[in-house]
Amino acid sequence: MEPSKCDLLYSPPDIIKDFDGFISHICEWVGSRILCNEPVPAGTKIPLYGLATTAITQSGVFPGIGRYTVEEVFVRAGLYFLFFSFVLALISNHIGISVYITTKELFFSPSRLARLIEGYWQWCHESRSVELWWVIYGRHLVG
Q1: What's the CA gap between 119 and 88, in Å, rounded?
Q2: Judging by beta carbons within 10 Å of its beta carbon (0-12, 13-18, 19+), is residue 57 exposed, middle or buried?
Q3: How many C-beta atoms surround the C-beta of residue 138 within 10 A?
Q4: What's the CA gap between 114 and 111, in Å, rounded?
Q5: Which of 101, 10, 9 is nearest to 56 (CA)?
Q6: Is 78 left (phi over 0), alpha (psi -120 to 50) or beta?
Q7: Domain count, the chain
Q8: The overall pTM is greater than 0.85
Q9: Which residue range(s) make up the domain with 32?
Q10: Which of 135, 133, 74 is nearest to 106 (CA)?
């Protein structure tokens, strides 16, 4: 079965402009593709024990998130284990969550899912900021 034109033109709600719509979209996706017990079309159910980063990048639910940017979102969400967090763990007895977290471990935990959404919001907000564009292109605009 080929996708219709409506399916091809569909894009998830913008997290900055329509936060409530984005949350509803995420809840619907998690319920229909991860938590579902009913049959779904072949190839659309996300494996529970696969990597969450793979599920996020291949689902299209988080627009703009790819292979490399998913790690940036995990860092902002506190879901990434870095060397610096290891040093902090030695000091404060706190260890972050690995980037190798499974889909089940991430999406079955409301607090981790909330942190992921907050990290994605922060990444979207920073990527649209004027300061970022000035840092990237500002030195080239000086004439």
Answers
A1: 20
A2: middle
A3: 10
A4: 5
A5: 101
A6: left
A7: 1
A8: no
A9: 5-141
A10: 74
